[in-house]
Amino acid sequence: MADKVYALAIHYRGKCKKLKNIDPDKYSYIDFVADIKEVHAVGDETVFKITCTMDDSNATMNICNDFDVLSMFSRNENRVEFDVVEIGMMYYCETGQKEGFKVMRMRNEKKRVTAHCSVKDCPWRVHASPLADGVTFQVKTYVPNHTCVRSDPTKEASAEWIASKIESVLRENPGMKARGIRNELKKFGVNPQYMQIYRAKKKAMESIEGSYAESFGRMSYYADLVLEKNEGSVVTLQCDVDETEPIHSTPIFKRFFLGLSALRDGFLEGCSPFLGFDGCHLKGPFGGVLLAAIGLDGNNGLFPVAFAVVESECKESWTFFFENLSMLVGGFSVDKPWTFMSDRQKGLVETINEVVPHAINRRCARHIYANFRSQFAGTALKRYFWQAARSYSAAGFNFALYKIKELKPAAYEWLLKIPAEMWSRHAFDPRIKNDHVTNNISESFNHWVGELRSKPILTLVDGLRAKLMSRLQKRKQKGIKWSGLVVPNVVKGLNLVKEESRKCHLLVAGDYEFEVQDENINYIVNLRERTWHNRRTCPNIQVQNSGRDSDLHVPLSKLTRKRKTPPLAGRKRKAAVISSSQPPAPAQVSSSQPLPKKDPVVPSMHAAGSSSQPQPPSYLGAAYLPTKLLERDRSLSSQGNKEQETQ
Hints:
Layout: E1 6-12, E2 15-22, H1 29-35, E3 49-54, E4 62-63, H2 69-74, H3 84-99, E5 103-108, E6 113-117, E7 125-130, E8 137-143, H4 159-172, H5 178-185, H6 194-209, H7 212-216, H8 219-229, E9 234-240, E10 252-259, H9 261-270, E11 274-281, E12 289-296, E13 302-310, H10 315-329, E14 339-342, H11 348-355, E15 360-363, H12 365-375, H13 379-389, H14 394-407, H15 409-416, H16 440-449, H17 457-480, H18 488-501, E16 505-508, E17 513-518, E18 521-526, E19 531-532, H19 541-544, H20 549-553, E20 604-605, E21 623-624, H21 637-643
Parallel strand pairs: 11-14, 14-15, 20-21
Antiparallel strand pairs: 1-2, 1-3, 3-4, 5-6, 6-7, 7-8, 9-10, 10-13, 11-12, 12-13, 16-17, 17-18, 18-19
Region (Disordered): 539-647
Organism: Sesamum calycinum
Keywords: DNA recombination, DNA-binding, Transposition
């Protein structure tokens, strides 16, 4: 019946009111009462002759009382039956709001609905029960007059009624706060308490986005959809199954990993092998943690590579994340100086040492200082700590530590226990060309996720995918407008270097070798080998490199955002459950809990790849490919000249 619309011609007291294009899926008795509000002025007249005409036929019917409006739509065999009791309850609430009196529900059952005014001697009463067909409800008794005084309508505003009124508003503005919702309800003459507003908002958001529990059951369908539209991506859905139950028992959600091929290709072809790792807690009723791997593009912008939803931050969940991340990037080759920045989360360091033993580990200096300050507080110690962390030369680093030793020898000994290559710029591997001493890029990503952390898992995952798709395209369009091969942030840095070079004195030792005197400190610079004794950009390279653009532009790459993330089509929130899975238990899994030796049938899925691609980790269970997965197509050369973009 959803494909038909209705037109109503309401006849009363010689008048006629016409209503057109009424969708029975959206039309309720409340709307009907509002549409015929002129009828209430009739007074004692309770029986009205109302003619309902379907647009696609000449069928008509008479409405002899208020509740007969239900049968207007149930006449058609294809029409889904109304929940009469629910509509009756909503009628009470709506009537109480409009008329300004409180309704008492004597009976509210499937077989009968009876209500009366809350004032003892007031005669207002309504009683309805189904007819012989068991579908149509008929009002058997209706006394419309009130002899009582109007009461406060707020008492009749239930959470369900408020949810029905604010649902359309929340669709447009899901982040509306309780105060804004309260102001929105003032037009109905009600002023509910904030706790009631919170409950109503929860019900309305569940109607819009689906419930938290139901969204877990749609993750298998969503994974198939992502792989179909993003060939080459890695999507892994890991579930637990109780081995004591039958083989067809419902799996329980455990972990989900998503790595899009467009982001993977942009990272490998246009970013340095530097990744920041962090996790942020989810705010839903089932908890969980969102893990993410974040890189940096050539313009020092955030470049998310992959993320996962897991039960907690522990060694097992980080192993799951790194195994899939390795599959996404084609393995962590020893030929690249892979560098990982972290806050030393629980289980992360152990996982890195096992999965990527050759990786360079960096520790966030901000978290190191937080531990340092808890034992050695003081403004001077803070200043020299950050001077040591940000120093580009060993001399500057040693000088800062010497000052710390003078102030607090115990603090000096404490810092010596941490290898300098983990937190000081002067000791970083020069191949990585990245001088970040904090993990702020991961913290920025957690802030960028925003309100999605409190959404159901399907809304969270697809919301992140949509934000990443949009971000990739916006950065690409911005990069197309740049002039030259050097990105804006690098240009700003080079301009500062030009100013600093005016304070330096240069001695030429050969065609490519120089001695630079900068504030009584001498440095050796070799332009052929691109080396000098300080890790900062050399102020004199700009002077001696005039006319040698090739030297400056060799490290540049244009392929960071060459590929796009295709959009997804389909009903993600309201789709039927293709492969059900229960939500996880609210309690967090202990980090000491061992992994099962062998997972039973697990609905895991991975992208197709070449034979040289690393195989899925054994504990993920059997992998399968969606039947509609397209063959990978890397023929991008025809678009390369048109869509090239600087980092």
